[in-house]
Structure formats: C-alpha cells, structure tokens
Amino acid sequence: MGRSFANLHMKSDSLEKSIEAFRALATQNPDLLGLSDEDQRDTDITGTHHESDKDKLVLYISENNEKWVSVLHDYFVWGTVKRIGKSLSRLVAEPVMTVGFIHDEIFELSVFQKGEIQAERIFCEEWTRSEYGLQEERLHDDYLREALDIPQEEMDVLASMASPAQAADKLIELTGLSIWSDWEWVPHEAELRDRFAKHEISLAD
C-alpha cells in the first residue's frame, strides 16, 4: 500500500505558547484529538480493552527548525490533521501547516491562519488526482512561499513536482522541517527519537 503519515507544524518561536495552544484546543474540542469520553477505550497488545487517560494529552514535539514547532500526535492522519490544523489556527496568530501523505500516492500540504485555509498544494500524478477527485481548496503559491520563507525560483520548482516523495524531500531541503515523520514511527526510528521530545500535557483543572 505504500507509506502513509501525517504531521503538523506551527510557525512559532515559543514552545510554551505552542503547548498552551494545544492545551486550549484539547479543552475546547477534546473529540478532535480523541480525548472525548467515547474515545477513551484502548486495546493493548493482548487484545484487552482498558481506559485511557482523557486528562492527559501526549505529543511529540520537535524544535529543530527555529521558525517552526513540529508536532506529532496519534490522531494525526490524512484528513483529520487538516481539521485539527484549522481549529488550532484559531488559537494562534501565526500560520499552522499540516501534512498528509497517503500510500506514496498523495502529498497534501495545507496552511491555515485565523481558522481559514490560506494555501494548499496537492502533489500527485494526474491519474491519481482524477481517480480521487482531488482539488486544492485554495491554490495560493505566493502565500505558501512567504509562509515557508523560500525563494520564488525554489517555489516554482516545488510547485512543478508531481511525485509526492520528491516534493516531500524538496520541502525538507528548503525548510529543514521533519516532513517524513509520524507518531507511530517514533519508537522505531532513532533519528525521530532524537528530533522529537515526548510531552505529556495535563488537562485536569
């Protein structure tokens, strides 16, 4: 089926403010992050169901780019991560970028600000775009270029790419962000464990 992953990036120079924004989101809209009462049943490796801690939000966070805070969470998947990014952007002033990558076929890059999508790029082959009926919600490369702080000529190269993997690699080259990353991969990849620190955020009053 190919690789799939999702992650979120907040344009911020403050880890504390980023964590507080997630705390506020988890408090205001817990079901968006899988923290509502009906979502609190987990299954361990023996198949036994047990109650999880709805008063704690667990994130993996990287500050390897001085302009962005990168975040991984177990509810980030293609589609879901966009809804989270949109809601989170209402709580912060700076842009929030989401990445959704599915089956090595689609790389969806979306940027939100003040609760609205500002720019989006979907990197895939034309047959994939047609098969899935994919269309950018807002194609605005000037905003994307400014938000990512990359030169126009590099933006032109990125925008011309159809290969999801090549586009992801190009974005890493241009920004240094941890694009190839996912919550599920952290325990198994030393590089991600080095880049991302685990944060357990209490939601109790």
Instruction: List the helices and strands in order.
Output: EHEEEEHEEEHHHHHE
Number of strands: 9
| Poorly predicted parts | 38-52
- Strand line-up in the sheet with most strands: 8-7-6-1-5-4-9
Helix content: 25-40%
The profile of the biggest β sheet is:
7 strands, antiparallel
Principal-axes geometry comes out as: globular
Structural class: alpha+beta
Q: What proportion strand?
A: 25-35%
**How far from one another are the termini?**
43 Å
Cα radius of gyration in angstroms: 17 Å
Please give the count of helices.
7
- Integer average pLDDT: 90
Write the layout of secondary structure elements.
Elements: E1 5-11, H1 15-28, E2 41-43, E3 49-51, E4 56-65, E5 68-72, H2 80-88, E6 96-102, E7 106-113, E8 116-123, H3 126-132, H4 141-148, H5 152-159, H6 164-175, H7 190-195, E9 197-202
Antiparallel strand pairs: 1-5, 1-6, 2-3, 4-5, 4-9, 6-7, 7-8
